[in-house]
Amino acid sequence: MSKLTVSNLKGGLSLLDPTVIKDNQFENLANFFYNSSQRVQTRRGYTLFGQPIANAVTLLNAADAVAGWAVSDDAAALATGTAIRGTFALTFNITVAASGTDQATLTHTTLGANITSTKGYIGFWLNVPTGFNTNLTAVKVRLGSDSSNYYEWTLPTLTMNANRYIVLTFATATTTGTPVDATTNYFRLQATYTATYTNQTGIKIDSLYAYSSTSTKPVTSYFFFQRDDTLVTTALCTAFTNMYKYDETSEYWEVIATGLTEYDTLYPSNKTRWSFFVYKNVIYMCNGVDNYRSFNGVTFTEYAGQPKYRYLAMIADRPYGAGDDTNPSTIYYPAAAPADASIINTNAVVVGGDEQGRINGIFAVGQVILAGKDKKIFYVDVTNVKAYPIDPQNGWFAQRSIQDVGNGILYFNDLGVANLQQRNALSGGAGLATTPLTDDLQPLIEDVIPLQYNAACGYYIDPIKNYYFSFDTSADNIPDTTIVRSSLNGSWSTYTIPTGYEYGKYIETDGTVHYVLASATTGQVYEIEFGFSDNGTAINADLLTKQYDFGTPTTWKDFEYITIYGLISTGGTIYVELLIDGDVVEDATITDSYADVTATTFPIGTSVIGTGTIGGGGSPTIDTFAYKAKIPLLGAGGGQKIQVHMYSNMPEIAWTLDKIECVYNGYSEDIFPISNIA
Fold it and tell me: Parallel, antiparallel, or unpaired: how do β-strands 149-154 and 174-176 relate?
């Protein structure tokens, strides 16, 4: 009797010939990752992050000027003030008892807007002074074609002395008369109060828009920034021809720029993607088509005459831009640290010859700028205005895939994902060398056609040591396939998560971190690695070990039993199939209290192994217990190879596979029992 024990299941997925993969690798490993103890564990789920992003918006009024606006009743002193968005905001005061009406009214009667296609909700900014809510009866908003035909809402209690983004859905409005949406002219904001109300100064309103209820336009870019002094956060994304900013309180995305270019000019069937960097707390951006511009949290500014950068980076107080279609081998940068980053192209360095392709991305590493072209990666020395090729025989693509991971940089080239690391005792360009990482996944990587190389995106989540790489295998510029690499052991798995154009993170004001994915098919942003279901539905986790032949592939074996060990969460069910020479010969289920194997049951450990998410992380917790399932095989006949297939398809489950033991009797090489010869 012999026993095979496989307890080091850290090899991850391999799509090579099953006869040559290692015992600790898997033929299929879908929706698993390696947790902090390097157990192969079912992945966590995803959920919605924020409200869907509207397809279209209609400007009702920018509130940058008093023209068209009027105050009445106790409202007074209408003027322009410091902007919340744009150039200015409108301000007015309340002088109690000025009219004897116990109300103050702000109106506009000539908006001239058509909200037929944007009748999902309205959004605007409001700031009220301290004391505004004391003895207040209500604040109501009307929007319609005139003062007799309108939609009306009652605002929730307002946060005082703070900018508050107000969202009012048409589904919750009361309707008076018959508003004509195509001629929306009338807006009214009215506060009512008791006779003991006090005067209020500096009520502010800004940036009124109507938003569509549809959300089918993909989210093509995402960017997050948190100031290190005030900890104020900014999350931006683009969809269709608009740019949006996330409002944490309402969880809605407010439009901050319109009229952007949706499709690329170089590749007209592809969506434009934006690149961002931050300098002195101002966000700068470009997409290779529209003008270079900035956003300071209030106002957008365009800088005409700059190259149309596709790729931006920041290092040592100097910004860098590259990817301009007119000069695709040039990196632009200022001569010294500038007062602001409004002008980048005062200096330039040409990176390699055009025969090596165009620049596909720039990346800052320490005090070095790296530039990747189609066929070579370059170390850029801006001091001496030179670019030196480094060791890799291939270039790189897809700036969104380039990530700092551990002691190296992971990036995508025409052979797959590679790791760029420092060589010992060498410096500069000569000190960098590359290692391919996806040799075992070539059948999948080879599905990417060169035209879609730059569609790929990647992200590294340090707390769980996962690098996510999404790429296009359908030739439509949408990253539809995702593989995940654990930096703990270098192993890969596949994920079935929404197709996304870009990964990122969002940090709430209380410090909670969310890892997000911008959808490439709808206007929804998702949070990944959250909970244990996919927005409430089952995660279909599936693994298939290699076919174990125990080093003697042509030897007949009589298999006695297989024992499987791991962890399972409360209420979970794992399904097991055992295959001999490719055929299913036995099946079983494993639950949190028993391993159900035909007529025999085996108790599972009753002590809680962990009460947090296996491997750590910031999502909801789940209890996990040890299991041991012994599955007899004497009645299943023998064969040459045996394989374990395990899967689950229910929400709120987490489980691992830690060890497999197989007990068998083997025969001499190439000798089979007579009873098994036809």
Answer: antiparallel
